[in-house]
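=== RUN LOG ===
request id: a7f3
mode: sequence -> structure
chains: 1
length: 93
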Amino acid sequence: MLARVVTFDGVTSDRMNEMKQEMESGQPPEGLDAKELLVLHDADTQKSLVVVFFDDEDAYRRGDEILSNMPTDDTPGQRSSVTRYDVAHRQTM
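=== RESULT ===
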């Protein structure tokens, strides 16, 4: 499993609430084969961390291309970093 971790700056609480409503009521971008989405937000620093999980390299590659080409109006804030990680361990409690 692979994770695409993106950091956004300038994410206000109002914008995060808008994004939450859009994500809950909408569909993922066409062709995105993600298994899970995790969005973290720090209102005090106006930063957000978005983690998208993919099953394999092909799904990650397609997902990275789709997400990298999203219009900035569709993102929480200004993208400051994008990093690929291998998921070493995942557990729900």
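=== NOTES ===
Residues 21 and 27 are 11 Å apart (CA to CA).
The radius of gyration is 13 Å.
=== END ===
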